[in-house]
Amino acid sequence: MCSRCKRLYLLGSRCEPCSLARAKRREQKRKHTRPSRWARGYNTQYLKARSAILADNPLCSICNPQPASTADHIVPLSRGGTNDIENLRPACGPCNFSRGNRTP
Length: 104
Known about the structure:
By secondary structure, this protein is mainly alpha-helical.
């Protein structure tokens, strides 16, 4: 019996139509995965600028009392921003991640 549609089937746990549908769903899911950090623009230039920003100012520029652990893009990369040091500011993780893709 097929575990998905409950039709009688002798071999395996799923009938052939259900197995094909599952394989198709898996393939579609693989296509929608997030690109790597490098593909999204977080390259060597960003890493160097990030370390310089965090060494210069160790406090979050958004909420001030928290120690900064990330470098926030003022204009996000997806909106045409760059990894230049002028476009980065220190931010704590919660402030940076809650801000998302928005411009200030």
